[in-house]
C-alpha cells in the first residue's frame, strides 16, 4: 500500500504528467474565475485531448483542472458577488459582505486557505477510505439519499433566518426551489411539466443562470444605487493586511474547517448529491457555531466562518466524489460522470482493478488533487492583494464590466437568449427576497436537490411502498431533520432566557 | 419596502404553488407525486406568511443576508433602482438586436459616459478593453458560438 502511495507521487512528478497538470491548473484557474463557464462543461470539452495521453497524464490534466475550479470560483464570488461556479455560491453570502466592508483580502485569504485544507482532507479521505468505503456506500439506498436531501433543506431553512417566521420563509424558499426544479420533462413518466410548450424548458432550468440571477442582480442593483465602489467608504489600508488575517482565521477556526471538510467529503461520497449541496450544508453547519444571538445575526453580513465552511467543503468533496467513482464506477457528481468517461478513454475500468492492479494510478489522483491545490493557492496568494483592490474601483467603471460578465456567463450556459431572460427573472426574485428579508440559500438548495430528491422519492415509494419510512438510517435522518428544525428555536429560547436572567 | 416586498413575494408564491398543484392534478401519479407533496405545503406556508404580514405588518424577520442600501435611509432609492433595471433591460435588448460583439462595447461606453459621467478617454478605453477581453476569451479561445443580432439578420449582414 505504502509502495503504491509513493509510486503514485513519482508518477505525478514525471515531467510530462506534471506539465499536463500545470496546463490543467492554468485552464481551471480561468474557468473558475469566469462566471457561468462550468467546470463540468470544460471537463467535457477537454476529454478529446486526452486520447493520446498515458492514464497518469490524462488524470493529471483533467483532475488538475477540475480540482482548482472551485478554488478560483471563490475569488469571483467574494469580489463581485457573482458565483464563479454554481458550487461557490454560498461563499457570496459572507465573502462578498466582507468585501463590501473592505475586508476582501481577509475573505479571500480565508477562502483559499480553507479550500486548501479541504482539498487535502478530501485527498486524504480518498486515500484512507478506498479499502473501507464499500459498506458505507452500500448502506445508503434511495430512501436514505432522499432523506439526506430532506435533512439538507431542513438544515439550511432553519438556519438561514431567525425566529418562527424566518423558519417558515426558509421552508417556502426551499419549496420554491424544489418547484422550479420540477420544470422540464418528468424523469419517470416522461411528461413535460410546466414547460408551456416551450422547447427551451424541456430540459429544465439550468442552475447557472438562476444562481447568477438570484445572487448577482440584487448586488449589482445595490451597487448602482450606492454609486460607490464595492468596499464603499471603508478603509483602504485593511485590504493589504487582510490576507494573512484570513489565513489565521482558518486555523483559528481549525476544528470548524475540519468538520466542514468532512461534511464535503461525505456529501462527495454520496452518489448524486454533488458540490452545490456540500457548500450549503457546510454553510448551515458554520452558522451553528455561533454562540450568541448577536453572532448569529452577523452571518450573511460578513462573518469569516461563513466563508471558511463552504470553502473547505467545496474542495474536500472532490476527493470524496472520487471514492465511489474509482471504487465502483458510480459517479458521485456530474463532473465525476464526465471523468468516468475519461477512465474509458484512457483504457481503465473503474472497480476492483483500480484498487489492486492500478492502485498506483489511483494514488496518483490523490496526489494530483493535493499538489494542484497547493500550486493554485500559492499562485492565488501572490495575486491576492492586487485582486482585492478591485473592490476599491469606482462603481461606475465596475458595474458595466460585471454586467457584461453576468450576461455572457448566463448566455454561455446553453447558448440561448432564454438563459439571459431566466437570469433576469430570477434576479427580480432575488431582489424581492433580499428586499423582503427572505433567505436565498434554501431556494438554491431546493433547486439543486429537486431532481435528485424526486428521483429518490419515486424509487423509494415504488420499491418499498411506505416501508422505507421505517428503515433505521431513514429514522435517524428524520430525527436529524426534526432536530435541525427545533435546534434554532430551542437555542433562541435559551438565549432569551439567559438574557432575561442577566437583566 | 420590507413588508411590501414580502407581501408581493408571498402572494406570488401562493399563486405559483396553486398553479403547480392544479396543473399536476391531471397527470399520472408518477408525475404528480412530487408536485403535490411539495406544492400543497408551500401554498399553506405562503398563505400563513401572507396572513402574518397582513395581521402584523410591523413584524420583521431578519434573514442572514446583506441588506439593501436603500433601507439605510439613502434618498431616491426607488428612482435609482428603476434606472438600474432600465440599464439591464437596455443591455439585453441591445444583445438581442445587435448581438454581443456590438452590444458589449456600446453598453460599456454608454454606461461609463452617461451613468458614470466618465471622460471620453476613460469610457472609450474601458469599452475597448472589455471588448478585447470578450473577443479574446469567448470568441478566439473558447469558440463560444455568438449569433449575430436580429438587425444584422434582417438586413442580411449575418
What does this protein look like?
The complex is a heterodimer of chains A (503) and B (158). Chain A is built from 22 helices and 2 strands. By secondary structure, chain A is mostly helical. Chain A has one domain (2-392, 401-502). A two-stranded antiparallel sheet of chain A has the order 1-2. In chain A, helix 4 packs across helix 5 (90-100) and helix 8 crosses helix 9. Chain A is globular. Chain A starts with a helix and ends with a helix. The model of chain A has no long low-confidence stretch (mean pLDDT 81). Chain B is mostly helical and 158 residues long. Chain B is 73% helix and 0% strand. In chain B, helix 3 runs antiparallel to helix 4 (100-115). The longest helix of chain B has 27 residues, at 29-55. The two termini of chain B are 46 Å apart. The chains are: A mainly alpha (503), B mainly alpha (158).
Task: Tell me briefly what this model is.
The complex is a heterodimer of chains A (503) and B (158). Chain A has 503 residues and is mainly alpha-helical.
Class inferred from helices and paired strands of chain A? mainly alpha
Q: What is the mean pLDDT of chain A?
A: 81
Counting H and I runs of at least 4 residues, what is the number of helices of chain A?
Answer: 22
Strand percentage of chain B? under 5%
Number of E-state strands of chain B: 0
- Report Rg of chain A: 22 Å
- As laid out across the biggest beta sheet of chain A, the strand order is 1-2
Q: Low-confidence stretches of chain B at least 5 residues in length (pLDDT < 50)?
A: none
**Shape category of chain B:** flat
Quaternary structure state of the chains depicted: heterodimer
What order do the SSEs of chain B take from the amino end to the carboxyl end, as H and E?
A: HHHHHH
Largest β-sheet summary of chain A? 2 strands, antiparallel
Helix content of chain B: over 70%
Name the pair of protein chains with the most residues at their interface, and give those residue counts: A-B, 80 and 78 residues
Mean pLDDT across every amino acid position of chain B: 86
The parts of chain A where pLDDT drops under 50 for at least 5 residues are none
- Share in helix of chain A: over 70%
**Major sheet description of chain B:** none
Structural class of chain B: mainly alpha
